[in-house]
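I hope you will forgive my troubling you with a question about protein structure. I should value your view on which stretches of the chain appear to form regular backbone elements. Here, with my thanks, is the record as I have it:
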Amino acid sequence: LHESYDKSKQASSNAHQAYQEALTQSAHHATQLSQLSGHDMRLGQGISEGETTHFQESLSKMKQIASDVASRTGVSQDKAMSTLFSVGFDLKGKMGPVSVGAGGSTSTNSSEHARISFDEGVTTREARDFNESYNQVKQFVKNHHFDETTSKGAQLSSQLGDDIRKAETASRNYDISLAQSERISHAEAYVKSHGDQINSNLDQSFARF
């Protein structure tokens, strides 16, 4: 049981690291996308001008919120964007004020593994507004195919879609691994606390056999 628990914990750690790396890349590519315009944002055939405009507006809103948070808390815009991306993955409809500031650490709690804890705050409204725009961006990049040779914007949009898919996969793997670790830990604790009774029951069974 102890060996299985160690393997499961390592799997959780690996998934969590992959998740954080994908979030960082997502935030970086989203920030880069939000700075493009004109020919750089020609996304290719099958994507209308209206869809592109709506995509840009959502990216711009995300960038503005991240910029406000960064200015208020003293972190980089990419760091603020990454934190807000984590809220996008973790928001369950019961969002309270999110803490954001310069001395961040990552929670390993199953329901809050995406959160980064900081010294100052992101308001509930900022978190929800960012999440609304993030969901629109996420659906756009996941539901379109981008020819990366078309423009810088098409290349970054394709990369952002890959980043988000990787983050979602890593997030699921983390929760699965953590749940398995907890089950093994409980089983191990039960065996340790009821060892004498288990051995007695086995002895009786063998005796009858």
Residues 91-120 have pLDDT under 50 and may be disordered. The longest strand covers residues 98-100.
